[in-house]
Amino acid sequence: MRYALFLGCFIPVRLPHLEAVARSVLPQLGVELADIEGFTCCPEPVGFLTDRVTGLAMAARNICLAEEAGLDIITLCNGCTYTLRQANETLKADPALRARINEILAETGHEFRGTVDVRHFAQVLSQQVGFEGIRSVVRKPLTGLRVACHTGCHILSPPGVMGFDDPLDPIVLDGMVSALGAEPVDWERKTMCCGWTLTNYGDRESANRLLGAKLDAMHAAGADCSTVICPQCFYQFDTGQMLAARELKMEYRVPTIYYLQLLALAMGRSLDEAGIRQHRVKDPALDGKLGRLTA
Amino acid sequence: MHEAAEICLKCGVCCNVAHSCHVKYDHRFNPRYTFVYDCLASEKRASNPNIWLCVSCHKCEETCPYDVSPVYFIEALKAEALGTGFVHPTIRAEVAQIVSTGFAFPVTGATERQRQTLNLKPLPPKAVDELAKIAEKTGLAARLKEAQP
Fold first, then answer.
1. Which domain range does residue B28 map to?
2. Phi, psi angles (nearest 5°) of residue A4
3. What residue in B sits closest to A211 (Cα-Cα)?
4. Which residues contact A95 (CB under 8 A, 6 or more apart)?
5. In terms of C-beta density within 10 A (0-12 exposed, 13-18 middle, 19 or more buried), how is residue B2 classed?
6. Is 0.90 surpassed by the pTM of this model?
7. Looking at the 3D structure of chain B, how many domains does it have?
């Protein structure tokens, strides 16, 4: 299966090691990645915080580029997936709105036709590659690694549009973690937001309390680390945790690992190759455990 | 928007799941009052700073028994804030950045060096001329200018 790789902004600009790991592991699962020239920001804050019509037009323009290449889109970010899927489904279902957006797009030379789909890599892995397909590439099972799965918000709601998992009881990511041989833990506050939006646009102290409550719950469940499928969640649990830990005087750390990094480790890549060493929140016990599992 | 708000019974189900309304994290925000107050009672809609405490987690949408879905009201108020001078400065700056560069975040020399170390291609130039045409046509460009501090 061949997809147009939609990188968005956060990963290529701030977390390029996650782009590198995606480019390295996905093709080995039969997911071929094509680079499309001209993609811009999805554009998340334009759409749902500022101007719905402009947001739809900019998202539609991105989708048009994939349509012109005849490829479905694969994303690495919950926010991009939400923006592009919402726009795609809305414009496919509403001919009047589609006509209005196409009128706005006319000067750019693009026309939205509604011929492609948008999928998060977690959707591609769980629904197309399948859990069996994931298991088939595991060379170093992550046996005994206890992982708190944080799916994030924007890939879940509304489920009719997003088509991934139950927003109030998500379990697909747990299944994907199990497929690597690791052990997903039950933990409280699993469906709570990571708080990234609150940190940036709201109130940092509230965000720290929210993040602290989530980390407490992971720690209480005995998690070695958390796993995420979204760069915003990743940033919050990594850099955000580093900053919050000072204010909250936290006595422990729960490092986070982007799911594709866990997959890379299970496929036999080293900690360096998976980009784990670039993280800000480190735990020697976790590094030791991962070192033994991947040796 | 108002039609749906009028059927809100203030039952509070949304507040049991919304993430930052819990008093433990921030007692100022609560989806019921934030949108009911702003949409139906206040002449200064969108001036309530508490709208920026909504994280758009959509859990209120999942649990609202009457399909009121406070999240969409609060997002509409955030959008309205751009035209009324109450926009959060970070949002205004980020949106302006997207329209002018195609990226939500500034690309720095450090970004390019890190990409080089990882053997990733340099970031391609974005189709900013096309974004400018869209923003011009929808009026976003003019609204952003007006909202400049």
1. 2-83
2. -80, 120
3. B25
4. none
5. exposed
6. yes
7. 2
